[in-house]
From TrEMBL:
Organism: Streptomyces rubrogriseus
Location of the DUF4031 domain: 4-76
Lineage: Bacteria, Bacillati, Actinomycetota, Actinomycetes, Kitasatosporales
Protein name as it appears in the record: DUF4031 domain-containing protein
Pfam families the record matches: DUF4031
Organism domain of life: Bacteria
Length: 98
C-alpha cells in the first residue's frame, strides 16, 4: 500500500492543508485514512484534505512526500483524477486498465 501526500501549502479555514492520495484505488485511500482516524468528510472527489498538524502522522504511517504537481500526475496516471463539476467514477471505483 503506497499513499502520497503533498506539503501543507493550501490555505483554507485559517489553516494550511495537504492532499492525501492513492495511485491504486479509492478503497486503498479510504482504508489508509480510516487507519489514521481521518473522517470521511475530509474526502473531496479524489483526495483527502489533511490539516498541517496531521502531515507528520500521515508520513509516519507510510505516506510518501511528493510535490503537489506529482499528486496530480499520480491521480491522472492511475485514472483516479476527478475534477470539480465533472461526473466521475463512484468513490470505490478501481482505476482503468492500461
Amino acid at each position: 500500500m503506497t499513499l502520497y501526500i503533498d506539503p501543507p501549502t493550501w490555505p483554507g479555514h485559517g489553516r494550511l492543508w495537504s492532499h492525501l492520495v492513492s495511485d491504486v484505488s479509492y478503497a486503498e485511500l479510504h482504508a489508509f485514512a480510516d487507519a489514521l482516524g481521518v473522517p470521511r468528510r475530509a474526502f473531496e472527489r479524489d483526495h483527502y484534505d489533511l490539516p498541517a498538524h496531521r502531515y507528520a502522522d500521515a508520513v509516519s504511517a507510510g505516506a510518501l512526500e511528493v510535490s503537489s504537481r506529482e499528486v496530480v500526475r499520480l491521480l491522472h496516471g492511475a485514472g483516479l483524477r476527478r475534477r470539480k463539476g465533472v461526473a466521475g467514477a463512484a468513490p470505490g471505483a478501481q482505476p482503468r486498465s492500461s
